[in-house]
Amino acid sequence: MASLSDRLQDIFTKLKGKARLSEADVNEALREVRVALLEADVNYKVAKDFVASIKSRAIGSEVLESLTPGQQVVKIVNEEMMALMGGEQAKLVVSSKPPTVILMAGLQGSGKTTSAGKIALYLKSQGKRPLLAACDIYRPAAIRQLEILGEKNNIPVFSLGDQENPLKIATEAVAHARKHGNDYLIVDTAGRLQIDEDMMREIEAVAEAVNPTETLLVVDAMAGQDAVNAAKVFDERLPITGIVLTKLDGDTRGGAALSVKAVTGKPIKFTGTGEKVEALEPFYPDRMASRILGMGDMLSLIERAQSSLDQEKVIAMEQRLRQSKFTFEDYMEQLQQIKKMGDTNELLSMVPGMGKQLKNIQVDDKQFARAEAIIQSMTKVERTNPAVINGSRKLRIARGSGQSVQEVNRLLKQFEQMQKMIKQINAMTQGKKKGKIPFGLPF
Questions:
Q1: What is the DSSP letter of 216?
Q2: Rounded distance, CA 161 to CA 197, Å?
Q3: Which of 90, 138, 181, 378 would bridge 382 by S-S if both were Cys, CB 3.0 to 4.6 A apart?
Q4: What distance in Å separates the CA atoms of residue 40 and residue 7, rounded to the nearest whole number?
Q5: Measured CA distances, 176 to 83, 93, 131, 184 (Å)
Q6: Contact 261, 83 (CB under 8 A)
Q7: In b/e form, how buried is each residue of 389-415, taking b as 16+ CB within 10 angstroms?
Q8: Rounded distance, CA 68 to CA 418, Å?
Q9: Stated pTM of the model
Q10: Can you say whether the dihedral through the CA atoms of 239, 244, 247, 251 is positive or negative?
């Protein structure tokens, strides 16, 4: 999605830089938008209709004769993009009589089993009691994969092994959930091939037997237009109620996110943005449109921080920073807290204006591990008073951490800069309303 975002931002930056806009200016920009969308693997009809909708609103006197016509056009694009992806957040539907059954469907390799575990963890974080049902008896180790996800996150998994019929497993899982008070049952089914008629009939039979409240289709965003076409085929055979878009962090084009709702008529309910089981987010069309247009997504960033960070540790850390008591132990605590929030590049892309600045920069999350290894190789005295670290100590720390002396020097320099910045912020906020002390990133 990064390349699409960059292209659109470049187009609209040129528009916003003009004091006046003509109809020709808008037409030229929209031609470029259409090309960018098609190159991002957006469905042809979707791209055509999207551009037509923008054009009908943008070429009018209230826009072209306004004080900020470029910004007005961007506002229209943002609104149309939100509408294209569903307009409002589509939440999970809850059954009036528990359990709420969620049937997972999708092509082989789409990330369906992992998504089932992610949704279960998401529901658990909301105070629910989910049960996972292992109905993929065909893929080697599929059942074990689901069991491992359950064990790691303390979520029960119902399984009858790989010798039973998926229909029987799903039916008995419903009874088990009712008996044990599970308010959600997530049924993981085998991945299908579009041309596999027997497998499609099997999942249709499972759906008819368990009568799911939600049938979620898991779609690999990196498959682009192929993923959208697959969604269309599934929707013709199953009562699909929503889409889970996986691997969105790896999709540099963005075509699936912009096309799947328009083509299938089904809302995107969740997006997966990484391999970690916590890397699942409810889908908000307005926030995604904002990200694509380079406006950031502070709401998602704040929500992720609130759910990922240990708030007591954050408060304690801020108090120490206000007293300028910042040690390498504090620095390592920061690294560990930030790592919980996910991929660093994705986090920075949520900050308004950062997308363009980071266009040619990739933050390597391995730097976190290198920094931790160096700090862990320090003695207690060195962590609390880095000034004692001389040449021989640097050599010992480098050997102990498996890093070079240059890496040790680099970290010491970053730490020194962080200390100076914290002192400057404290000096500026003395006697004033205190602002937040920022967390430092090891770039």
A1: E
A2: 24
A3: 378
A4: 10
A5: 40, 21, 9, 11
A6: no
A7: beeebbebbbeebebeeebbebbbebb
A8: 40
A9: 0.66
A10: positive
What are the residues whose beta carbons fall under 8 Å from the beta carbon of 364, sequence distance 6 or more?
Answer: none
Domain ranges of the chain: 2-84, 100-295, 302-429
CA-closest candidate to residue 237, choices 95, 92, 103: 103
Q: Read off φ and ψ for residue 357, nearest 5 degrees.
A: -65, -30
Rounded CA-CA distance 168/391 in Å is: 68
Q: Would you identify the CATH topology of the domain 2-84?
A: Four Helix Bundle (Hemerythrin (Met), subunit A) (1.20.120)
The residue type found at 433 is: K
Bridge partners, 169 (sequence order) = none
Tokens of 284: 């908000």
The residue whose two tokens read 């961007």 is 74
pLDDT digits (tens, 9 = 90+) for 75-127: 888 888 888 888 888 889 999 888 999 999 988 888 888 999 999 999 998 89
Mind listing the pLDDT tens digit for each residue in 234-267? 888 888 999 998 887 655 556 777 888 888 888 9
CB 259 within 8 A of CB 7: no
- Architecture, CATH, for domain 302-429: Orthogonal Bundle (1.10)
Q: For residue 344, give both structure tokens.
A: 């660093």
Task: For 183-209, give the DSSP string.
Answer: SEEEEE---B-TT-HHHHHHHHHHHHH
Taking CA atoms, 130 is separated from 39, 112, 161, 166, 213, in Å, by 40, 17, 20, 19, 14
Q: Which ranges constitute the DSSP H helices of 17-135?
A: 23-39, 44-58, 61-64, 69-84, 112-125
Sign of CA dihedral 258, 263, 267, 272: negative
Residue 265 region by backbone torsions, left for phi larger than 0, else alpha for psi between -120 and 50, else beta = left
Work out the pLDDT band at 443, boundaries 50, 70, 90. Answer: very low
The sign one gets for the Cα dihedral 204, 206, 211, 213 is negative
Confidence of residue 194 (pLDDT cuts 50, 70, 90): low
CA distance 119 to 130: 9
